[in-house]
Specification:
By secondary structure, chain A is mainly alpha-helical. Chain A has helices at 3-11, 25-51, 68-74, 77-109, 114-126, 129-139, 146-153, 165-193, 197-205, 210-238, 242-247, 259-268, 272-302. The longest helix of chain A is centred in the N-terminal third of the chain and has 33 residues, at 77-109. Chain B is globular. Chain B is built from 15 helices and no strands. By secondary structure, chain B is mainly α. Classes of the chains: A mainly alpha, B mainly alpha. At the A-B interface, helix 1, helix 2, helix 4, helix 5 and helix 6 of A face helix 1, helix 2, helix 4, helix 5 and helix 6 of B.
């Protein structure tokens, strides 16, 4: 069923590739990728799907418990709490970031010293995440952190950036924003550069000002790239692990226990059946969220 | 005399605003990095009393010395180097090869196989965490280099991207090679590889940075310090320091933390500064996925 179209394509005249021998080479070339995918992708996924219906804890026989893991999670405050934490982080990071990154990208298109600005913006993205997480701890410490010492010099009171449950998420979001905005800018810049200049020329002849051009041309045409970034950003935020793991370890009062960290808890507790179920629930939700945001953005593209 | 249209005041304001935005965001991007770098050379006490003053006269390597005495950073570097080499070589060898097959051959099952590449692209890495860890413990691979290297080697994005690049090679070039009696592998080596070299360079830089900075999988599968990568070691650094240095005060721990973070960031910065163009191209190629 799948092979038929491939053959039909190969038989069309424009691709005049003579097939003198059975095509063994392409299979050999693809084989290493396929082996890795089967061995370390498909097989463990299938195993995990099976495990998610058991209460396996890392040893002994598999005991089938039906949907219990899923029901447990879907009725568990911890599970929804971790999702809510990730959701709040998403709200704190993605919408604002997209707007700021778009503004920076638009400013970059015609800027001098463009490569220098790009280098500065991307530097956080290549810096080891763990290193920066450590720096965040030192910067935002309540008693000795540089940020609070700076505030004190201005006569302001100390703020519990990482110890106040209401502030820990924003402080963490700041780290995510700092690290990933440069990446968003580059993607959006690539999107902006793919808009043909003739479109702008035509608009200018019609007397469109800078703002009109932005609203009527730039924004609709860059929406594709925006929705692509939103999907990537959603995946990033809902898989957030290293930042909360190193900076807050989920605290204070579980306020930064993200979906990723909660999943990791199952591993440290050896609740592997439960962990597998959690993985699958997470994928479904992340996919749904990505699809929903693309839908919303794409509908604006048409308008 | 043709006069250019007078630049309206609003336009001038726009230019100023544009550069103000760029300068401000560039500064915000670099500030934490600069602070880390400069503070690492300050005496610990100064970091917590005077975090924003940097004096040449009190600059010191004490933080680096104290950190290296108790933290086996060289083991972390060694392990990361092994993983970067192993995983990196697999990626650099087999991504272009698979990309070549998908771009320039017609063969039964091609669509299905390429479909798996696309699916793997969209699979969140976090889902595989538990199942992969189980597989590793079945294989007896927990705390081993195969576990750190093999899963995730030959990444789907690399295959997808290399396919795009190889597809731009004209068929005539390959046909000519075939006429000269080149075999499939020979064609790849002497025609495809040289042509796609710029793309390969970008893939190499991106791959290096990704593997070097990777954290989630190593922290799960390498619990034994003997197999911990640099990033994993870095993540538990303050515990290591306080456990090994009795009576070390916070200021000193922080100084060492910043020193270690700086050391860990140096290889990426060197690569970044030298090969920035390739990297940007690589990240931009990511937008082709959309």
């Amino acid at each position: 069923m799948v092979t038929a179209p491939a053959r039909a394509e190969g038989a069309t005249p424009p691709a005049r590739r003579r097939r003198r021998r059975p095509p063994l080479a392409p299979y050999l070339f693809v084989a290493p990728f396929l082996l890795i995918f089967l061995g370390f992708g498909l097989y463990p996924m299938a195993f995990a799907l099976q495990l998610s219906f058991t209460n396996w804890r890392g040893a002994g026989a598999l005991e089938w418990i039906g949907l219990d893991n899923y029901i447990y999670l879907l009725t568990s405050e911890d599970f929804w709490g971790s999702l809510a934490n990730s959701g709040v982080l998403w709200l704190l990071v993605i919408p604002g970031q997209v707007i700021v990154a778009l503004a920076i990208a638009v400013a970059l298109v015609k800027a001098r010293l463009r490569n220098l600005f790009i280098a500065a913006l991307v530097a956080p993205f290549v810096t080891p995440l763990v290193a920066m997480a450590q720096v965040w701890i030192v910067l935002f410490d309540r008693d000795f952190g540089a940020v609070n010492l700076g505030l004190r010099d201005l006569g302001l009171p100390a703020i519990g950036w990482l110890t106040d449950p209401a502030l820990a998420k924003p402080t963490l979001a700041l780290l995510v924003l700092w690290r990933t905005t440069g990446y968003a800018v580059i993607l959006l810049l690539a999107g902006l550069q793919s808009i043909p200049s003739q479109v702008y020329e035509a608009a200018r002849l019609d007397g469109a000002g800078a703002w009109t051009q932005f609203w009527r041309i730039t924004l609709p045409l860059v929406m594709r790239t925006v929705s692509f970034y939103v999907v990537i950003g959603t995946l990033t935020v809902f898989q957030l692990f290293a930042e909360p793991y190193v900076v807050t370890d989920g605290g204070p009062f579980n306020s930064t226990r993200t979906a990723g960290l909660y999943l990791y808890d199952h591993i440290t507790n050896s609740d592997l059946g439960l962990g597998s179920a959690n993985s699958f629930l997470l994928v479904v939700m992340v996919f749904a969220l990505s699809l929903a945001s693309v839908r919303i953005l794409r509908s604006r593209e048409d308008g | 005399m043709s006069t250019p249209p007078k630049p309206p005041a609003r336009h001038q304001l726009g230019v100023v605003g544009r550069y103000a935005l760029l300068v401000a965001t560039a500064a915000l991007s670099l500030a934490p990095l600069a602070w880390m770098l400069l503070s690492a050379f300050k005496p610990g006490a100064e970091i917590i009393t005077d975090p924003f003053r940097f004096r040449v006269s009190t600059m010191t390597l004490d933080n680096f010395r104290a950190m290296l005495e108790t933290v086996p950073l060289e083991i972390g570097f060694r392990n990361t180097a092994i993983v970067v080499l192993g995983k990196g070589l697999l990626t650099m060898l087999f991504c272009p090869l698979a990309g070549y097959a998908f771009a320039k051959y017609e063969f039964p099952g091609k669509r299905l196989l390429f479909g798996t590449v696309l699916i793997t692209l969209m699979l969140p890495t976090l889902v595989l965490l538990v199942p992969l860890l189980l597989e590793m413990s079945e294989l007896g691979w927990v705390n081993s280099f195969p576990a750190l290297i093999l899963p995730g080697a030959i990444d789907a994005f690399g295959v997808f991207w290399m396919r795009q690049i190889v597809a731009s090679i004209p068929d005539e070039l390959l046909d000519a090679g075939r006429m000269d009696g080149c075999g499939d592998l020979r064609l790849f080596r002497s025609i495809v590889l040289p042509v796609i070299r710029p793309g390969l360079a970008a893939l190499a830089v991106l791959t290096f940075i990704n593997i070097y900075n990777d954290f989630v999988w190593p922290v799960v599968v390498a619990t034994d310090p003997e197999y911990q990568t640099l990033q994993v070691m870095l993540s538990s650094l303050s515990q290591t320091i306080t456990a090994n240095q009795l009576g070390a005060d916070w200021a000193s721990v922080w100084g060492q933390l910043l020193a270690a973070s700086t050391v860990a960031a140096v290889p990426v910065f060197v690569i970044f500064v030298l090969l920035q163009r390739h990297l940007i191209k690589g990240v931009m190629a990511g937008s082709l996925k959309g």
